[in-house]
């Protein structure tokens, strides 16, 4: 591995951490800054109420802003806190300015382990930053007591 490859991987890991910190704390501008200008955020689900796709920073910003607004008024989920933890991460550099990553995550709330899954990402270097070009969030497990279960539906 070259120094440039090592630095690229660390920059990608930093973007992943920034994404989770910003998302858990509803820091909308910091969250949106993790995406390329034409970045895509999506999830697929058998139940359409849990599926979404947002293309471009403005669409992602609008979605995250709804989380913030509804949390202040009626709540998007029943948790008093949310903490996403990243675990095993495989990053493959696919070009000088592109990469793919697969990262396991688990979200903790007041009940403990609430839900878990996999981020399937494409990254692109934009200027000096490695940003998310496409993120597919796959939920593999949800606690029957999940406080987060209706959050996606409630953010529409």
Side by side, the strands of the main sheet go: 2-1-6-5-4-3
What does the main sheet amount to?
Answer: 6 strands, mixed
Integer-rounded radius of gyration: 15 Å
User: Overall pLDDT, averaged?
Assistant: 90
Key features of this structure:
156 residues, alpha+beta, Nuclear Transport Factor 2, Chain: A, six-stranded mixed β-sheet, globular
Describe the structure.
By secondary structure, the chain is α+β, with helices and mostly antiparallel strands. The chain has one domain (3-154): Nuclear Transport Factor 2, Chain: A, CATH 3.10.450.50. Helices cover 31% and strands 43% of the residues. It contains 4 helices and 6 strands. It has helices spanning 3-24, 28-32, 57-73, 151-154, and strands spanning 35-43, 52-55, 83-95, 98-109, 112-126, 129-142. A 6-stranded mixed beta sheet has the order 2-1-6-5-4-3. The chain starts with a helix and ends with a helix.
């Amino acid at each position: 591995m070259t120094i440039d490859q090592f630095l690229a991987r660390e920059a990608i890991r930093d973007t992943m951490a920034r994404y989770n910190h910003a998302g858990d704390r509803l820091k909308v501008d910091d969250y949106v800054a993790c995406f390329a200008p034409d970045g895509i955020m999506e999830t697929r689900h058998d139940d359409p109420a849990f599926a979404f796709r947002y293309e471009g920073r403005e669409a992602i910003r609008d979605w995250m802003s709804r989380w913030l607004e509804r949390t202040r008024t009626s709540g998007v989920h029943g948790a008093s806190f949310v903490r996403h933890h990243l675990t095993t991460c495989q990053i493959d550099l696919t070009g000088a300015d592109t990469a793919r990553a697969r990262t396991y995550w688990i979200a903790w709330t007041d009940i403990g382990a609430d839900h878990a899954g996999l981020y399937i990402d494409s990254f692109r270097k934009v200027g000096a930053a490695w940003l998310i070009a496409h993120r597919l969030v796959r939920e593999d497990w949800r606690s029957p007591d999940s406080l987060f279960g209706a959050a996606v539906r409630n953010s529409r």
